[in-house]
Write a structure and sequence with these properties.
Layout: H1 3-24, E1 31-35, E2 41-43, H2 44-58, E3 63-68, E4 75-76, E5 83-91, E6 102-109, E7 120-128, E8 132-138, E9 141-148, E10 151-157, E11 166-169, H3 178-189, E12 193-194, H4 200-210, E13 212-216, H5 229-242, E14 246-248, E15 268-271, H6 273-283
Parallel strand pairs: 3-5, 11-12, 11-13
Antiparallel strand pairs: 1-2, 3-4, 5-6, 6-7, 7-8, 8-9, 9-10, 13-15, 14-15
Bound molecules: 6-O-phosphono-alpha-D-fructofuranose.
Subcellular location: Cytoplasm
Subunit structure: Homotetramer.
Cofactor: Mg(2+)
Length: 284
């Protein structure tokens, strides 16, 4: 069975689940008592999306394991062996209260987790915006889709625009290291516009649509940044690189970053190659 067919089947299962995830949001805006493995509060919507996707994705032929930001350990599927799917079931769920966009991120890894980004066979995100869209990538190519009634409608190849226009970075400005803050000042002088909405998928969609750079950098108070390597940085880095851009943990592609534990965090920056190159030069 070709790994591509498994990756495509995972993408189809995520698309098929999208209407149910979206429909589940209105009634699940309350916080649960428990926290996720990263110590963050969990919404009822996080738990529901995670349970739904775990059930669907462990049922995909060729998937041997499922892991998510919301679960301490990897869930073994019935079938032994096969690919591992790493999922952020509801990325940016804190946007639910303010009714701003959120997403679902998946990475399809060839092997056990935690894995290197170079082990990715494919990656995708769903964006729950005014309409539901999806970006999928495998074999070095990214494609854009509309998701209607759980089906992917192909909108064609996705490539980063040549000319960047937007940027968005997480963390508080006073908590940015000086070298990073200076880099951002230069972007402003280059007339890039600030676009930051608190959900990685939505902010990366701005970058893929208009060109630019998104990141959650290393902070003085948190040198590892905030975003998770397995569930956010690797899959999104893979997508943006497939769309002709670059990813970086500040030194090199996030896909090359050593994975020591399932829930580890990493600084991550993605976007037009020239802007990411300049970032690495600024931090060197
Ligand atoms: P902050 C959402 O919680 C998330 O993991 C990403 O989707 C998003 O980019 C980031 O954290 C937002 O973090 O500190 O701005 O709330």
């Amino acid at each position: 069975m070709s790994s591509d067919s498994v990756a495509e089947r995972v993408f189809d299962a995520v698309a098929a689940s999208a209407p149910e995830v979206r429909a589940s949001l209105p009634g699940r805006r309350a916080y649960l008592d428990d926290e996720n493995p990263s110590g963050e509060s969990m919404l009822a919507a996080d738990a529901h999306a995670d349970d739904l996707l775990a059930d669907r994705l462990t049922g995909v032929d060729g998937v041997g394991a499922y892991a998510s930001e919301e679960r301490e350990a990897v869930v073994e599927a019935d079938e032994s062996g096969g690919v591992s799917v790493a999922c952020d079931p509801l990325d940016g769920s804190s946007n639910l209260k303010s009714n701003n966009p959120m997403g679902t991120i998946v990475g399809v890894y060839d092997g056990d987790l935690p894995a290197s980004g170079r082990d990715l066979l494919g990656a995708a995100y769903v964006l729950y915006g005014p309409v539901t869209t999806m970006v999928c990538a495998r074999d070095g190519a990214a494609r854009d889709y509309l998701v209607a009634d759980g089906e992917r409608e192909d909108l064609g190849d996705l490539s980063l625009p040549e000319e960047p226009t937007v940027y968005g970075f997480g963390g508080r400005v006073p908590d940015w290291p000086d070298a990073f803050a200076s880099y951002v000042e230069e972007l402003e002088e280059d007339e890039l516009k600030l676009r930051y909405g608190g959900a990685m998928v939505a902010d990366v969609s701005q970058v893929l649509t208009y060109g630019g750079v998104f990141g959650y950098p290393a902070l003085e108070s948190a040198p590892e940044g905030k975003l998770r390597l397995q569930f956010e940085a690797n899959p999104v880095g893979y997508l943006v690189e497939a769309a002709g851009g670059r990813s970086s943990d500040g030194e090199g592609s996030v896909l090359d970053r050593e994975a020591a534990s399932l829930h580890e965090r990493t600084p991550v920056h993605v976007g037009n190659a020239a802007l990411v190159d300049r970032l690495e030069a600024a931090l060197a």
